[in-house]
């Protein structure tokens, strides 16, 4: 790949929306009495996500994340909390699976409206070393939901 | 010094700025040719056949050992055991000498500056044997706190493990002083991780005085998958084998076996003769440059990089002053995570390492999750420093840094 092509991919990766979520993360913090929580670590680069979830019946009522790491891991967590809030666990599963498709380079996912603003992260799929960063929060969410299902 | 044409990968990618030689180095044509030549002219299983080709393979392997031992200043070349690399060499000492000699109540001293390869084997040995692991702390600028070390080494200490050069910060440790102090205060063995010193410094095993010294060929222009452990003969002869199988035995009875002499006792199975020949070609190449020139060249580039990095607002460099380091600069940039920085630099053709550098105990003490690390070697030049600086400025632009 030529240097200009690579530079264009970098520009596509660091979109303004991602940098905005990195600088001003949404739903960052902790809940008073969470129904479920999960911690995820990326041992390769040290990214950390701690996720707490409260449920309202079968839907995700509220959730908060804390942690530290690169812009991709933290922005992905912030964007995830926005999109799953108020969704049923079945809907969350569907979005999570589709987001994983997006990270693995599935072109059809990049235009799938179910992903909403998460599509801003589509550039990550061109950087295999960074896919884990983007999936970290989603893996934490999966773990938290599984913990609840027991 | 313009050696880039000697390295095919770099010669074929003129836009690439490789600043991750502390992870692995590139290989000059002479190394690649030597490996190919071995397979084309001398390939047979060493130590096995009665035929001339096997004898030739044995001679190549034997000569490689002599050449590499001489390069590292080890007078007794049969006390150089070939391993897959530094990690295996250190595990060999922990698994063989350690298992046989460490027991409940004993103590093992390691340092907070060490790579996981020279930390985890000792931690696990201590857990297995009910021994205590003691950790030497660091001074504020990332050097070993020798007063702390002096306080940790006692009559109970069985092993003192440390690196010659830190992979994460480039700190060069005063190995001879450490060995002298350990000898004065204990009967412990000293184990030195030489992965980052063998490629960059003039190393003399005999002069350093350590009991064991482990190194990796792939960081010193040699092929991946071959390194070595140099040990004191009387220690090696007293140690049980690390692995068993072909080549390492003297005689196998139905109910017991006896062991071959050094170095074969610790080299079970078919040896990696081709890569040993490759590493011998690498040390010949390094000798041709001169190890004093290698370090001078790296330091010149590192100093140039450092003075320009220091001028960047919000950029913090870790480790001791340039004159006390090998060619490594470890740093963080305010508001830009090292992982993001590495991705943006990659977009500019600049390869650096971002992460914990397999030194999590050190990262905890520096109170960072990760750093960015640029490391220099013989094939780097000023254009690599230039590209690094431009890439860092680009990262700041992307992350919206606004100068006050």
Please describe what this structure looks like.
Chain A is of the alpha+beta class and 150 residues long. Chain A has one domain (3-149): Sufe protein. Chain: A (Alpha-Beta Complex), CATH 3.90.1010.10. Chain A is 47% helix and 18% strand. Chain A has five helices and three strands. Chain A has helices at 3-13, 16-23, 71-84, 89-103, 128-149, and strands spanning 36-42, 47-56, 59-68. Chain A has a three-stranded antiparallel β-sheet, covered by helices on one side. In chain A, helix 2 (16-23) crosses helix 3 (71-84), helix 3 runs parallel beside helix 5 and helix 4 (89-103) packs antiparallel against helix 5 (128-149). Chain A is globular, with a radius of gyration of 15 Å. Chain B has 404 residues and is of the alpha/beta class. Chain B has two domains: 4-19 and 290-398, Aspartate Aminotransferase, domain 1; 30-287, Aspartate Aminotransferase, domain 2. Helices cover 40% and strands 16% of the residues of chain B. Chain B has helices at 8-12, 29-41, 52-71, 86-101, 120-129, 146-152, 175-185, 205-208, 233-238, 273-289, 291-310, 338-347, 360-366, 382-398, and strands at 17-18, 80-83, 107-111, 132-136, 157-163, 189-193, 212-216, 227-231, 249-252, 257-259, 315-318, 328-333, 350-351, 353-355, 371-375. Chain B has a seven-stranded mixed β-sheet, with helices on both faces. Chain B has a four-stranded antiparallel β-sheet with strand order 11-12-15-14, covered by helices on one side. In chain B, strand 9 (249-252) and strand 10 (257-259) form a beta hairpin. In chain B, helix 2 (29-41) runs antiparallel to helix 10 (273-289), helix 11 packs parallel to helix 14 (382-398) and helix 12 (338-347) crosses helix 14 (382-398). Chain B is globular, with a radius of gyration of 22 Å.
């Amino acid at each position: 790949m030529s240097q200009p092509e690579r530079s264009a991919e970098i520009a596509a990766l660091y979109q303004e929306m991602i940098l905005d979520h990195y600088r001003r993360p949404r739903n960052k913090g902790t809940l008073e009495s969470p129904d479920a929580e999960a911690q995820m670590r990326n041992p390769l680069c040290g990214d950390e996500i701690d996720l707490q979830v409260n449920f309202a019946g079968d839907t995700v009522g509220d959730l908060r994340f804390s942690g530290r790491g690169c812009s991709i891991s933290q922005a992905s967590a912030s964007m995830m909390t926005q999109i799953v809030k108020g969704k049923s666990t079945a809907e969350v599963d569907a979005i999570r699976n589709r987001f994983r498709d997006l990270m693995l380079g599935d072109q059809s996912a990049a235009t799938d409206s179910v992903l909403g603003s998460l599509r801003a992260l589509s550039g990550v799929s061109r950087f295999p070393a960074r896919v884990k960063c983007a999936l970290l929060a989603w893996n934490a969410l999966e773990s938290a939901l599984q913990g609840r299902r027991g | 010094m313009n050696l880039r044409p000697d390295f095919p990968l770099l010669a074929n990618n003129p836009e690439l700025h490789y600043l991750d030689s502390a992870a692995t180095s590139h290989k000059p044509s002479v190394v690649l040719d030597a490996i190919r030549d071995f397979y084309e002219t001398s390939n047979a299983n060493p130590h096995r056949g009665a035929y001339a080709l096997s004898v030739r393979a044995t001679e190549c392997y034997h000569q490689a050992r002599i050449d590499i031992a001489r390069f590292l200043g080890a007078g007794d070349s049969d006390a150089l055991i070939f391993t897959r690399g530094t990690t295996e060499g250190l595990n060999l000492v922990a698994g063989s000498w350690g298992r046989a000699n460490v027991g409940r109540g004993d103590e093992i001293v390691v340092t907070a500056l060490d790579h996981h390869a020279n930390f985890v084997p000792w931690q696990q040995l201590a857990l297995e044997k009910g021994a205590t692991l003691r950790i030497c702390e660091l001074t504020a600028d990332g050097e070993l706190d020798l007063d702390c070390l002096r306080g940790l080494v006692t009559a109970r200490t069985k092993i003192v493990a440390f690196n010659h050069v830190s992979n994460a910060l480039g700190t060069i440790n005063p190995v001879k002083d450490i060995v002298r102090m350990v000898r004065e205060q204990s009967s412990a063995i000293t184990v030195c991780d030489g992965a980052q010193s063998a490629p960059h410094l003039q190393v003399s095993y005999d002069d350093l005085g350590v009991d064991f010294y482990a190194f990796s060929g792939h960081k010193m222009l040699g092929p991946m998958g071959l390194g070595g452990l140099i040990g004191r003969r009387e220690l090696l002869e007293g140690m049980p084998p690390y692995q068993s199988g072909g080549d390492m035995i003297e005689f196998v009875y139905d109910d017991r076996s006896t062991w071959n002499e050094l170095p074969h006792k610790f080299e079970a199975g078919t040896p990696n003769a081709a890569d040993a020949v490759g590493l011998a070609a690498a040390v010949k190449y390094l000798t041709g440059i001169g190890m004093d020139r290698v370090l001078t060249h790296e330091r010149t580039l590192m100093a140039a990089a450092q003075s320009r990095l220091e001028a960047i607002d919000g950029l913090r460099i870790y480790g001791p002053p340039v004159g006390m380091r090998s060619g490594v600069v470890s740093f963080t940039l305010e508001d830009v995570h090292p992982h993001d920085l590495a991705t943006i630099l990659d977009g500019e053709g600049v390869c650096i390492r971002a992460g914990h550098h397999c030194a999590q105990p050190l990262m905890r003490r520096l109170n960072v999750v990760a750093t960015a690390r640029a490391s220099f070697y013989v094939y780097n030049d000023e254009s690599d420093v230039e590209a690094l600086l431009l890439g860092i400025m680009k990262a700041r632009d992307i992350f919206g840094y606004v100068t006050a």
